[in-house]
Amino acid sequence: MPSVKLTSTVMGCVVALHLLTAIALVMVKTPVITIKPLEITPPIEIQLVSEVTTITEPVIAVAEVEPIKAPKPQSVSVPEAKPEPKKAVQPVVRKEKPKPQVDTKPATATTKIVESKPIIKQPIQSQESDALAQASALAADNERKILAEQTEKANQQTHAKAMREAQAAADTKAKADRETQAVSDAKAAQAARAKAEAATREKANQQAAAAASNTPVNFTATNANWASAPSFSFPARARLGARSGETFRVVLVLQVNKQGSIDNVSLAQSSGNAALDRDAQQQVLSGKFKPFTKNGVPVVGNVTLPISYAAP
Q1: Which of 31, 130, 154, 255 could form a disulfide with 264 if both were Cys (CB 3.0 to 4.6 A apart)?
Q2: How far apart are CA 109 and CA 59, in angstroms?
Q3: DSSP H or E run through 227
Q4: What CATH number has the domain bearing residue 228?
């Protein structure tokens, strides 16, 4: 954008040119236009002479031309209009050839009448007016160029400012998008970590529960419930040496898995009859318990089961 000093200088030059133009127009003197009247050529008389007879004086037509009135003086400078000189009208003269007989009719001569018109040249502008007009046109052209340059520069600056603002807005939006994405990524990472930690804790709990469930837990016979009870009967081989009605009591320790099946049987207290003790261990294996639980989780249990036999 041009500086204020340059703009002031240009405007001062334009004002000075206009003042000089006005002063020159005032000082120029308007010339007085004088137009001289046209000179009128007097008519020409022509006589026809015949050798044989006397020819009467011919009739000559004379054209009278009125002088052109001078136009009113104008304010502009006009060069003096000079009328072109009027050419003399040359009449056409016909000579008659001599005849043997005298013609009594007078011969007449014809004359063409040509009307002459003055040629008036168009007025032209003076050199001073041309110079002033050129100076004014040059000043106006310079002023238009300066205004066009200022407008173009202002448009360029406006466009550049709009581009900068658009770029700043795009950068701000990109930054906000990056921050939003970073927050979203942080939340996703935190959720993934929390999920992984929960899965780890769950796995640890499962492992702990599995380890705890694999560790046998002691239960009493009152806590045991048969899913299918075994059939206990006094064995025939144990009847030898036994009196009728005699009671034998055997205490067994059973290891029950998570499904309720009996994996192992051990003798905790003998009945005094070895054959009866062995048969009791075999008979109990045909039964199945309901799974033992601890805190709602199936576990391996050790249950002490007393069995009483009566000899038949």
Answers
A1: 255
A2: 7
A3: strand 226-228
A4: 3.30.2420.10
- The answer to whether position 236 is within a domain reads yes
**pLDDT tens-place string over residues 60-104:** 444 444 444 544 544 444 445 455 555 544 544 455 555 555 454
Number of structural domains found in the chain: 1
Q: Which domain holds residue 269?
A: 217-310
- Give me the residue label for tokens 């499962």: 206
Distance in angstroms (rounded) separating the CA atoms of residues 225 and 214: 20
Taking 80 as the threshold, does the pLDDT of residue 244 lie above it? yes
Q: Which residues contact 253 (CB under 8 A, 6 or more apart)?
A: 265, 266, 267, 268, 302, 303, 304, 305
Read off the amino acid at residue 269: Q
Q: What is the DSSP letter of 237?
A: G
Q: 219: part of which helix (H) or strand (E)?
A: strand 217-219
Strands (E), 85-129: none
Coil, strand or helix at 12: helix
Residue 253 placed within a domain: yes
The predicted pLDDT at position 63 comes to 43
Is 269 a domain residue? yes
- What Rg do the C-alpha atoms of the chain give, in angstroms? 75
Provide the angle, in degrees to the nearest 10, between the axes of the packed helices 4-27 and 127-214: 160
Note whether residue 296 is domain-resident.
Answer: yes
Q: Dump pLDDT digits (tens) for 141-170.
A: 999 999 999 999 999 999 999 999 999 999
pTM for this structure? 0.36
- Count of C-beta atoms within a 10 Å radius of residue 278: 15
Q: What are phi and psi of 18, to 5 degrees?
A: -65, -40
